[in-house]
């Protein structure tokens, strides 16, 4: 397995290293993505593909009277996220679980917000996974997607060759899948200079 496969599913020592790199490397993208939404302080939040847990920490800061759940299908990511957010977990404001986005282990209408930072590239079937996100969101809940690659930069294709099962989507493709999954109001934001995209979809 190449080191970069750890972006898809962090494993072992390389995976631990990758989650730490993700936390610092994706910070600017996350900051930009978060700037496109306002969050209620008492919100119930799910961060899917939580990686090293940095975005869980941002959600906790934004929703100080709420609760944040992190979910990842990598044991290493779950452990790293738990370590980073240990205090909030101890205080009962946070939990981190292992789970699969194509069968999210939560009841219908549980969350006010679901976020997915740098992760939908690896999801097994967008419409199925987006439908699962839609299911666990409350009515008028928000789904925030943030990607560092917008599908228009040829240089990014090297990653799809390096990382098995990775697919880069354009905002048009993401919007079409979101509509098919039942989302109504969909706003797209782009940072053309960096080829970033952020999508805010309302249930």
From TrEMBL:
This is Methylase involved in ubiquinone/menaquinone biosynthesis. It comes from the Bacteria. Pfam families: Methyltransf_11. Residues 46-145 form the Methyltransferase type domain. One of its GO terms (biological process) is sterol biosynthetic process. SUPFAM superfamilies: S-adenosyl-L-methionine-dependent methyltransferases. The keyword Methyltransferase applies. GO terms for molecular function: sterol 24-C-methyltransferase activity. Keywords: Methyltransferase, Transferase, Ubiquinone. InterPro entries: Erg6_SMT_methyltransf, Methyltransf_11, SAM-dependent_MTases_sf. The keyword tRNA processing does not apply.
């Amino acid at each position: 397995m190449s080191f970069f496969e750890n972006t898809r599913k962090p494993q072992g020592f390389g995976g631990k290293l990758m989650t730490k790199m993700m936390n610092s490397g994706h910070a600017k993208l996350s900051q930009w993505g978060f700037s496109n939404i306002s969050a209620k302080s008492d919100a119930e939040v799910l961060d899917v593909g939580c990686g090293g847990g940095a975005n869980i920490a941002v959600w906790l800061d934004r929703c100080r009277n709420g609760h944040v759940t992190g979910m990842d299908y990598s044991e290493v990511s779950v452990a790293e996220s738990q370590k980073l957010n240990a205090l909030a977990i101890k205080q009962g404001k946070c939990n981190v679980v292992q789970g699969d986005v194509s069968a999210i282990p939560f009841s219908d209408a549980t969350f006010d917000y679901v976020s997915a930072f740098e992760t939908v590239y690896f999801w097994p079937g967008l419409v199925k996974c987006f439908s699962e996100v839609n299911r666990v969101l409350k009515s008028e809940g928000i789904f925030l997607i943030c990607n560092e690659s917008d599908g228009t930069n040829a240089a990014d294709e090297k990653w799809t060759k390096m990382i098995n099962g990775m697919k880069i989507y354009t905002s048009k493709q993401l919007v079409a899948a979101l509509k098919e999954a039942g989302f109504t109001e969909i706003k797209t934001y782009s940072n053309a200079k960096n080829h970033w995209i952020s999508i805010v979809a309302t249930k």
